Amino acid sequence: xxxxxxxxxxxxxxxxxxxxxxxxxxxxxxxxxxxxxxxxxxxxxxxxxxxxxxxxxxxxxxxxxxxxxxxxxxxxxxxxxxxxxxxxxxxxxxxxxxxxxxxxxxxxxxxxxxxxxxxxxxxxxxxxxxxxxxxxxxxxxxxxxxxxxxxxxxxxxxxxxxxxxxxxxxxxxxxxxxxxxxxxxxxxxxxxxxxxxxxxxxxxxxxxxxxxxxxxxxxxxxxxxxxxxxxxxxxxxxxxxxxxxxxxxxxxxxxxxxxxxxxxxxxxxxxxxxxxxxxxxxxxxxx
Amino acid sequence: xxxxxxxxxxxxxxxxxxxxxxxxxxxxxxxxxxxxxxxxxxxxxxxxxxxxxxxxxxxxxxxxxxxxxxxxxxxxxxxxxxxxxxxxxxxxxxxxxxxxxxxxxxxxxxxxxxxxxxxxxxxxxxxxxxxxxxxxxxxxxxxxxxxxxxxxxxxxxxxxxxxxxxxxxxxxxxxxxxxxxxxxxxxxxxxxxxxxxxxxxxxxxxxxxxxxxxxxxxxxxxxxxxxxxxxxxxxxxxxxxxxxxxxxxxxxxxxxxxxxxxxxxxxxxx
Lengths: 287, 270
Fold this sequence. Notes:
The structure holds two protein chains of two kinds. The model of chain A has no long low-confidence stretch (mean pLDDT 89). Chain A has helices spanning 47-54, 76-85, 102-112, 117-130, 147-159, 177-194, 205-211, 229-233, 236-241, 248-258, 270-282; strands at residues 2-13, 21-32, 36-41, 62-67, 70-71, 86-89, 165-169, 197-202, 214-219, 222-228. Chain A is of the alpha/beta class. The longest helix of chain A has 18 residues, at 177-194. Chain A folds into three domains: 1-89 and 165-176 and 189-236, P-loop containing nucleotide triphosphate hydrolases (Rossmann fold, 3-Layer(aba) Sandwich); 94-162, no CATH class; 247-287, no CATH class. By secondary structure, chain B is mostly helical. Chain B has two domains: 2-143 and 239-265, no CATH class; 154-224, no CATH class. Chain B is 67% helix and 3% strand. A two-stranded antiparallel ribbon of chain B has the order 1-2. The longest helix of chain B is centred in the middle third of the chain and has 31 residues, at 153-183.
C-alpha cells in the first residue's frame, strides 16, 4: 500500500529574483507502507528540498504530494496535520534543541499535537527508550550533553510524535564510525518494533546499503535511478559519475570478479563478504 | 517575511556602478544623499530622482528587486506624507471628506514621498552593487585618519565585515530552525501576540546558542591564522581609482551645481 506519493513534483527557489534555481523537477515517487526507503544523492541534488515537501513545509511550484491518497496541500489544516503524520528529522538536529530539560524538549512535538499529559509522558519515555536515553538524562539540560547524546535527544523529539512516516535527513552525518553505527541501529530497531515507514536520506552508500529495502538516487533534481539495493548498485559506473560512491567492500568484490574469481558482487557489508567468501571456498574455488 | 529583506544584499555584476572604487562610491552616495536634502523644489528633486533611476538602470539591477526593498518602508512613506498634508496649511484650501487640506499640503506630501524614495533608492544601490567586504574595506580606508586619535578603525571594520558576513548565514539558520520546529508542529502563524511571541522561544534559543558557538569557532580559527588585529595587515585586493570615478565625480558635482541653480531661480516648495 502506498503511503506517500509525489506526482510531477517541481520546486524553484527565489522565483523572480536573479537567484532563481530549480531545485527539483518533475519527480515521481511512491513510498510503500512499512518500507525503509533510502534517498541518496550528491550535495545539491535536491534531497533536502524533496523531503521538505513530504510534510508540507514547502509548497511545490508544480505537482502534488499525496499522503494516504489525499493531497496534503489541499488546505491549511491538511498541511498542518501532515507535520504530525510525517515526522521530519533535519540534518544536524541537535542544533534545534531549546528546552531547559531533555524531557521537555522531547515532549515539544507531542504537546503541540494536543495530547493528554499521560499520553505525552508515555510517548516521551518510549522515544527515549528507542534512542537509548537513560532516565537520569531526561532531567538534564540538553546543552550539557555530548554531541552524540544531543543527536539522539533530537531524534527522540521527532520519534515521540509517533509519525506514520519518519524521515531522517543524514542522521549519521558528522559522527564517528561507532556513533554512525549506533544511530543506524536505532533507526533499524525503531522501524522493526513500530512497523512504521522510514525514509532515510544520505549521501553515504555504505550507511544506506546496510539498512534500506529500496533506494532512490537523485541527481540534479531528478530521479536518476530507483530500485532494490542490488539493482541500484549494479549501476556502479553511473553512480560514480554522479559523484556517489559504492561501498568499498563492493568495489573489492567487483575487482576480484574481474581478476577471475567467480564471486557474487552484490555484497555491501563485511558480514555478507564473509559469507560470500566462505561459500566460495566451500564450493572448492581455487584461491 | 524575512525573505523580503533585500536591504544590505549584494548582487554581483560588472556594470559601471559595480566597478567604481568603493571608497569613492561611499563618498558619492553620501554626496547624493546630501544633494537630495538640498533640493527645495520639484525641478531639482525631479532631477535627482531621474538621476537615481538612471543609476538604477546603469547598475542593471532589476527594478522589481529594488521595489521589493522599498516594501518595508511603504508605511513610513505613507505616514510622513500624510502628516505633511495636515501640517502644511499654505496654498489654496480644498475640501475633501469633510476635512480641509491645502494644495501646499499635497505638494509637500508628494515632495516628501519622492524624497524618501530617492534616499532609499540611492542608499540601497550602494549595498546592491558593492560587496560587503569591499564596502567595509572602503569605509576603513576613509576612516583611517582616525587611527591617529587611537580609534581602532581596522578592528571596527573587521567587526562590521563579520557582522555583515553573517547576516545571510543567520537568515538561513533562522529558516532551518523554523522549519525544524514547524516539523515538530510549532505553530508560528496563528494565535494572538502573546502566543506568537512564545512561539519564537524555540527559534531564538537555538539561534543564540548556535551564534555563540559559531563566534567561538570563528575566533579560534582567526587566532589559528595569527589574526591579532594589528594595523600591519596588507590587502589581497587593492583598490584602484580609475576614469570611472572621475566621470562619476564630475556627474555628481554637475548635479550639485544644477540643484543650487534650480533652487535659486525657481520657487521653493519646502
